[in-house]
Write a structure and sequence with these properties.
This protein is about 25% helix and about 25% strand. By secondary structure, it is of the alpha+beta class. It has one domain: 60s Ribosomal Protein L30, Chain: A (2-Layer Sandwich).
């Protein structure tokens, strides 16, 4: 077993420093969700939101479609560790764990795309929300890790 996650030929980006200590994980794929044409404040789902059911469903479907489209060519996984990075334009204090409904919709999109067979506890660890340390335009980056074989 190795203590370092390596990149596969489908991946870009460095090894995640938060997961460097976890043994037996390999970075399977990095997926960047294209937010072009979407306003962050009108699409993100937060646990603090008090949305009407229609609006909540509309936003959920947006994230499912974005994730399914971005993961269309990703090889299926039997088991995955999911880390989702949220990038913000400014350094204001935020609580990325409040974005759990957004993360859940993204994971559902991965199931819809066939990357994951199911998102139950035996097949998925996470999603683990993190803040991208570098500021820039709003961006969502999904990293899928698999077990080393």
């Amino acid at each position: 077993m190795t203590t370092e996650a390596h990149l596969c030929e489908n991946c870009t980006g460095p090894v995640d420093p938060f997961l460097a200590g976890e043994t037996g994980l390999i970075l399977h794929r990095t997926i960047r969700l294209d937010l072009t044409g979407h306003t962050w404040a009108k699409t993100r789902l937060s646990m603090n939101d008090r949305l009407y059911p229609y609006e909540r469903n509309r936003r959920t479907q947006i994230w499912k479609r974005l994730a399914a489209k971005a993961a269309a060519n990703c090889q299926p996984l039997d088991w995955a560790r999911i880390v989702i990075y949220y990038r913000y334009p400014t350094n204001h204090r935020r609580e990325v764990n409040n974005l759990m409904p957004t993360s859940k919709a993204i994971v559902d999109g991965l199931v819809k795309a066939g990357v994951l067979a199911d998102d139950n506890d035996t097949r998925v660890v996470g999603p683990d929300n993190r803040r991208e340390p570098v500021n820039g335009p709003h961006q969502v980056i999904v990293r899928l890790y698999r077990r080393a074989e």
